[in-house]
From TrEMBL:
Natural source organism: Abyssalbus ytuae
GO cellular component: cytoplasm
GO biological process, one term: DNA replication
Record family assignment: Belongs to the DnaJ family.
Subcellular location: Cytoplasm
Subunit structure: Homodimer.
Domain note: The J domain is necessary and sufficient to stimulate DnaK ATPase activity. Zinc center 1 plays an important role in the autonomous, DnaK-independent chaperone activity of DnaJ. Zinc center 2 is essential for interaction with DnaK and for DnaJ activity.
Cofactor annotation remark: Binds 2 Zn(2+) ions per monomer.
Name assigned to this protein: Chaperone protein DnaJ
Amino acid sequence: MKQDYYEILGVSKGASAAEIKKAYRKKAIEYHPDKNPGDKEAEEKFKKAAEAYEVLSDPDKKARYDQFGHAAFEGAGGFGGGGMNMEDIFSQFGDIFGSAFGGGFSGFGGFGGGGRARVKGSNLRIRVKLTLEEVANGVEKKVKVRRKVQAPGVTYKTCPTCHGTGQVTRITNTILGRMQTSTTCNACGGSGQIMDKRPSDADAHGLKVKEETVSIKIPAGVSDGMQLKVSGKGNEAPGDGIPGDLLVAIEEQEHQTLKREGDNLHYDLYISISEAVLGTSKEIDTVTGKVRIKLEEGIQSGKILRLRGKGIPSINGYGAGDLLVHVNVWTPKTLNREQKDFFEKMMYDDNFSPKPEKSDKSFFEKVKDMFS
């Protein structure tokens, strides 16, 4: 079971954004790889702290986490739906603790003290339509994505202006003496590399569009409008940059007979007066197939039958909702002479007079129970 994000950072659930940032900086400095060279345990704690901060520093992700827990981001390729690696961490949060280590991190992928930048490719966004059955059971979707990738044959060389450091240092004479300033290299944009060879089918950044099939694991219990993230499946970046992400928006399709309300489902069951009087059994739809239910003699219109656990699984893993079957007794609009004679005879029959019991709740009581 994954550790609670608030527990990782050592803050309470009601902590402010400033308190969360301060707590993360403290953890990041404590477990920074430069401070703990070769210590795998410290490296894991460093990654966990970044994972927690990536979610809790984002108001939308924090709200989803507070509501659904870790399950809000499952099936999307990693934490926060993102699966960040060390490069992701330093590219996104380096400003929080970079100054504590001389402006960089020397242990992974070019985040050295020289200030060389890692460009990240742009994100792609798609919508995925899901049936109610797919929402309830979880599904793996394969989608075709047109993304920019590095064209074969593209080569890069060290930037001659900054000599691969990504920064240009200038020394100027002032009234106070000689002053040294460092700025991002304009020639390479801070990457330390410039394009050497570019094939004819590549754009100015050495990229070309390629169609690729991406597999997306969607957990059970997602809802319409929820967004998942598949790390590294957006557009690639020039040189040794970091690929962008594929953002997947969930679109839930309307079911023909079932209506969703949170984790619960509603089903309108219509029966005849004869069926209501004599009792019957009916086959109804659920998200796992059809089931047969029994209706007792004398069942009343408006009766709600609760089929426990037949709703949508909770995305946080805490069981499933219920299926609420709303019984509606259908009154015929036209009758033949024989049928009219029968009901006219029964109109004043004592057995046909309404005699509601205390257990027969009113419409408003049923609505109150449904939302409580």
